[in-house]
Each structure stands twice: as structure tokens, then as C-alpha cells.
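Duplicate of #3305? Posting structure anyway:
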């Protein structure tokens, strides 16, 4: 998948759009590893754990945006 798609996924989450609801399958506002891997193909568990800065096993919008800014996300 392309970098563009990853950025779109992050942007959709940040904006709380309909696309974000599709990414966040259970609607809790956070991305599990499984949800994140659907939104961001190529995302490894290792990168997910790096992005999960508070270590709760879920990515918030802020954590996802931060990971994207740090260049952690694949694509
Ligand atoms: Ca979720
Ligand atoms: Ca987290």
C-alpha cells in the first residue's frame, strides 16, 4: 500500500470521519493491533508497540499521529 493511503487513514481517524469508523471496527475510538493492521497494511507488532507510547495496547488518535510524524508508520 502507498504512503498516501496511510496518511489518509491517519487523517480519517483524526477527523473522526465515516472512514475512521470503518477503521475502528469496534467503535471505541482506539485502534487495536488488528484494527491498525487493517488500516495500515505492513504495520508490524513491533512498530505498533513503539507507537503505543502509553503502553495500553491500543493506539489513540494522538499516538497514531505522533507515530506518523516520527516516520514509524510503514508505507
Ligand atoms: Ca477499536
Ligand atoms: Ca496507547
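Output from current build:
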Amino acid at each position: 500500500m502507498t504512503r498516501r493511503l496511510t496518511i489518509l487513514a491517519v487523517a480519517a481517524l483524526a477527523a473522526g470521519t465515516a472512514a475512521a469508523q470503518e477503521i475502528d471496527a469496534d467503535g471505541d475510538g482506539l485502534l487495536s493491533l488488528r484494527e491498525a493492521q487493517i488500516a495500515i497494511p505492513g504495520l508490524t507488532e513491533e512498530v505498533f508497540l513503539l507507537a503505543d507510547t502509553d503502553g495500553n495496547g491500543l493506539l489513540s488518535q494522538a499516538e497514531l499521529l505522533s507515530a506518523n510524524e516520527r516516520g514509524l508508520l510503514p508505507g
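Confirmed duplicate; merging threads. The chain has five helices and no strands. Residues 24, 26, 28, 30-32, 35 surround calcium ion (ligand 1) (CB under 6 Å).
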